[in-house]
Every structure is written in C-alpha cells, then in structure tokens.
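testing teh design pipeline on a random one, pls ignore if ur not involved
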C-alpha cells in the first residue's frame, strides 16, 4: 500500500516537473489568442443569399468550378438527422486559398465559406443542416482557379434509417 502511494506521488511530481519545464521554456504557450475577425466588407453576404450551386459559386468567386478528383469529401451517404450532417473536406491541390461548402437544395446553397491562409493545411470540418436529400458540393480555390467535388447525401425521414 505504501509503495503504491509513493509511486503515485513520484509520478505526480514528475508530471508536474515536466509541465513546469514545458510552460517555462515556451514549448507550451501560456496564452491563447482569438482568431481575427474579418471586416464587414469581406463578408460574402450576397453569396449566402444566392440560390443555386452554380450561381452561388459565380457570386462568391466570380468564376465557374471544374470537377476535381483531388478533393476528398468525408460525409455520410445516409444522414439520419439532417440537422447535423458531419462533413470533412481535404485536398491535395496546391496553394489553396479558399474552401466553400454548398448544399444544393437548401434555400440558400452556401452553407460555409473558409479563407485558408498560406501555409495552412487545406482541411475543414463542419456540420451542415440539410432539409432533404440532395448533393453537397465542396469548392476549393487553388492557384486562382475553382475546383469542385460533389456527393449525394440521403436524409431519412424521422431518423429511422430507411
């Protein structure tokens, strides 16, 4: 019993020492800074109110998007709850500056728009709200060109999987 207490005490002291060293040496930062909020002029207000996928892409980026197999979409093919459909987008395209998520049959197609800073991994994860079975479109801006990938998601009625 005494050996177990002594081991627990020594483990705790070792953990506290390592944590103190990490904080003191700057390996682990002592403060957290909030993300910067863009100014109101950069908010794509009109794009969020535009119906239709192609029209929204044109409004948001001023160009058409071409299909790409370098965009990976991870989302369920059947969503039992359309209020929270998880989606993850990543790409191997170079120099990505933006990623957008669109839901084709929603009243407003644009669900989310992300600006990707230079040097950041082109990866986003979000939850979408979908009213009915429809296509989800991921748009990636790479080297000034728009690329897209599409996947259909079936939203079940009542969440019973059928």
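output:
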């Amino acid at each position: 019993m005494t050996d177990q207490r002594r081991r627990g005490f020594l483990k705790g002291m070792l953990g506290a020492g390592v944590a103190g060293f990490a904080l003191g040496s700057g390996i682990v930062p002592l403060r957290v800074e909030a993300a910067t909020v863009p100014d109101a002029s950069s908010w794509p207000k009109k794009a969020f109110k535009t119906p239709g996928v192609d029209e929204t892409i044109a409004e948001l980026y001023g160009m058409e998007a071409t299909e790409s197999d370098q965009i990976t979409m991870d989302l369920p093919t059947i969503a039992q709850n359309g209020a929270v459909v998880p989606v993850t987008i990543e790409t191997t395209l170079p120099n990505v500056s933006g990623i957008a998520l669109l839901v084709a049959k929603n009243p407003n197609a644009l669900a989310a728009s992300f600006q990707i800073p230079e040097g950041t991994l082109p990866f986003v994860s979000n939850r979408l709200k979908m009213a009915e079975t429809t296509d989800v479109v991921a748009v990636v801006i790479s080297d000034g060109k728009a690329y897209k990938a599409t996947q259909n998601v079936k939203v079940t009625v009542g969440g019973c999987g059928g």
